[in-house]
Amino acid sequence: MIDDDTPHKLAEIIRDTWPQLYYLKDIKKPMTFTVYSKNGCPYCTKVQQVLELAEVKHVIYKLDRDFTREEFYDKFGKGSTFPRVVKDEELIGGCTETVKYLREQKLV
Fold it and tell me: Which of 17, 25, 74, 83 is the most buried (most CB within 10 A)?
């Protein structure tokens, strides 16, 4: 019920919860990794294993099942190699760069 005291009650709630709300900004959003891979690629297999070991959310897309080579080159540039790993719209790189990134983030 809204009465004359409602604005004061809301001000108290905001004042009392402000410290908790302030620290919420420091909470990291969960990362999602997208792996563009192909069958028979040992580095694709390795990067998938490393992401599973790190227990991070990831999605695997396979050449000729989920995308064409032309789409792959359009996205990453002609001559790009497999795998290509993207984190939340940011290109990480291949297997080596992904392992390095996960180590820097202390995830493996």
Answer: 83
CATH of residue 48: 3.40.30.10
| Residues sharing a CB contact under 8 Å with residue 97, sequence separation 6 or more, in sequence order | 85
- Is residue 14 a part of any domain in this protein? no
How many folded domains does the chain comprise? 1
| Token output for 62 | 């396979």
Q: What is the pLDDT along the chain (108 residues), one digit of tens a residue?
A: 566 776 667 667 666 665 655 555 555 667 899 999 999 999 999 999 999 999 999 999 999 999 999 999 999 999 999 999 999 999 999 999 999 999 999 988
Give the separation between CA 64 and CA 4, rounded to whole angstroms.
66
| Structure-token pair, residue 3 | 């009465």
